[in-house]
Amino acid sequence: MKKRDMQSAFLNEIRKSKTAISLHLKNGKTLKGELTNYDTFTLVINYNSRQQIIYKSEIATITPQGPLKF
Q1: Buried (b) or exposed (e) across 8-32, using 16+ Cβ within 10 A?
Q2: Nearest 5°: CA angle at 6, between 16 and 30?
Q3: pLDDT tens-digit profile of 25-59?
Q4: Of 42, 36, 40, 45, which Cα lies nearest the Cα of 16?
Q5: Which domains does the chain have, with CATH numbers?
Q6: What's this model's pTM, rounded to 2 decimal places?
Q7: What is the distance in angstroms between the CA of the first residue and the CA of the last residue of the chain?
Q8: How far, rounded to the nearest angstrom, does the alpha carbon of residue 43 sit from its chain's CA centroid?
Q9: Residue 17 has pLDDT above 60, yes or no
Q10: Confidence class of residue 8 from pLDDT cuts 50, 70 and 90?
Q11: 3-state secondary structure string, 24-55?
């Protein structure tokens, strides 16, 4: 059985639990929403019925709005 890396486990739990998140970007902006999908380079979030794709390289931190179990 392949062991999952921490980033994948963290993002997958956020996605499955539909926990709201705040994405703090390197440029100082904060985006809020619900993570709907992710891959090696990007995250897709929904906020106010709109989808946004964010490159992981532009994210400083990800803060879940509640506790996670992963």
Answers
A1: eeebeebbebeebbebeeeeeeeee
A2: 70
A3: 999 999 999 999 999 999 999 998 999 999 999 99
A4: 36
A5: 6-64 (2.30.30.100)
A6: 0.86
A7: 17
A8: 6
A9: yes
A10: very high
A11: EECCCCEEEEEEEEECCCEEEEEECCEEEEEE
